[in-house]
Amino acid sequence: MDNLSNISVIKDVLARHNFTFSKALGQNFLVNPSVCPKIAEMGNAKKGFGIIEIGTGIGVLTNELAKRADKVVAIEIDDRLMPVLAETLAEYDNVKIINADVMETDLHKLIAEEFQGMDVAVCANLPYYITSPILMMLLEERLPIKSVTVMVQKEAGTRLCAPMGTRDMGAVTVAINYFSVPKLLFNVSRGSFMPSPNVDSCVVRFDIRDKTPEGVTDEKFFFKVARGAFSQRRKTLSNSVSSSMGIDKSIVNQAIEQSGLPASVRPEALSMEQFITFSEALRKLI
């Protein structure tokens, strides 16, 4: 269906289906006609690829993905959108809509059944309130995918794509860099959506690593240390990890010393290799 980024067309479609926006689901539909083509082109929507879309809205991005990729499987939690999508995506025979919660969907099974012989990528305009859980699920599941391209809140995107060892990084930065190579693609103003959110957005892409960094013997413990390190952002690594993980400070300090780090080092100063070295030293001491 053409002109899906035209506000009058959107309002007409939604009115005919008696659709109202859900704040609980964080629904903000894209109305800027230039954004979705860029997401599709930068998000690996091309010949030879199958795309998993998370959250369809009324199908603006889905349309652009379907024009370019071999197949699109879109997962949409809001059953009220099913008749809307049946209308807006009627012209495409390479689109499948699944009415489900992506957090409760077996994506390994979905990929095996729907994308045989294709490379796979994920594209999504994610609700702000569930950005991190969805991203971590996509990465931790070690899905056979090439990339994850998502629209997120601008502040979140800055942290997700922050280089290791810089002031903007946080626990999620460690996880993102462990599984992928992140890149901030472009910014999207709040006026690009209907209804307009209170913050600006950005589009980021995570190119999945063929291999995760070496040296981690217990991933759950490694990520627990990362979360603990950034639980109190203005404190030293020693204070944050000791208080958040309930480990005697002398043990944490011993791990810091064994890792060749300054006693007063702050977590945002650590590289990936230093985080791994510290985590492994701490694991062996407790």
Automatic annotation (TrEMBL):
The keyword rRNA processing applies. This is Ribosomal RNA small subunit methyltransferase A. S-adenosyl-L-methionine binds at residues 28, 30, 55, 76, 101, 125. The keyword Methyltransferase applies. It catalyses: adenosine(1518)/adenosine(1519) in 16S rRNA + 4 S-adenosyl-L-methionine = N(6)-dimethyladenosine(1518)/N(6)-dimethyladenosine(1519) in 16S rRNA + 4 S-adenosyl-L-homocysteine + 4 H(+). It is found in: Cytoplasm. Belongs to the class I-like SAM-binding methyltransferase superfamily. rRNA adenine N(6)-methyltransferase family. RsmA subfamily. Specifically dimethylates two adjacent adenosines (A1518 and A1519) in the loop of a conserved hairpin near the 3'-end of 16S rRNA in the 30S particle. May play a critical role in biogenesis of 30S subunits.
